[in-house]
Amino acid sequence: MNYFFILTLVGLITINGNSAYSHVSPPSVAMTGKIQKQVAPMLAKKYKMQLCGAGGGMPEGIVDMLALSFDLKKALTIDEVRPILVDCIDTYLNVVNTDKELKPYLKNYPFTPKNIEISIFFRAPNGKSINDPYLCVAGSLCGKLIYSTKAEGQKFGYKSEVIESYEDAVKILNEKKNTSH
């Protein structure tokens, strides 16, 4: 009799989805998803990129990092991609930091470039790999901008990698803007 009762109770819990193993996502997951669905198409359209990934870090529902990855069928140099990366970071930060619903779930407010990861993977228009001197990948990680090239035929690793802080990238862009006036 007790055995039958236990089986029935376990069955009802499982059917109702209230078992100890069910998972309910914290509200921050839906909020960050909404923001990613807003920002990703905007950046993709602006720079003629295709979204290839989105994610983030949300231990216990507290948002400490948000990420977007794109494919871009174009050969670019560091000087050409720097303004794109900085704009992507700034645009993402602006949307995150102005969202009042998300604010209580952010690990730090305001979110900074250290909290945003952007990756851009470059391919030739025909889909083939792009080699040095053009970038094969560029991105931001922990407040650093990283630009990488590959040698022709190279399968693993990078031929060159240049790393600069977000602040240095902004400084370079401002200096170029001031000298062009």
Summarize the structure.
The protein has 181 residues and is of the alpha+beta class.
Q: How many beta strands in the DSSP annotation?
A: 6
Binned strand content: 15-25%
**Outline:** globular
Helix-strand topology string: HHEEHEEEEH
- End-to-end Cα distance, whole Å, is 88 Å
Query: How is the largest sheet built, in terms of strand order?
Result: 1-2-3-4-5-6
The biggest beta sheet is recorded as: 6 strands, mixed
The percentage helix is: 25-40%
Oligomeric composition of the shown chains: single chain
Output the number of helix runs.
4
Low-confidence stretches: 1-22
Structural class label = alpha+beta
State the domain count.
Answer: 1
| pLDDT averaged residue by residue | 88
| Rg, Cα atoms, Å | 22 Å
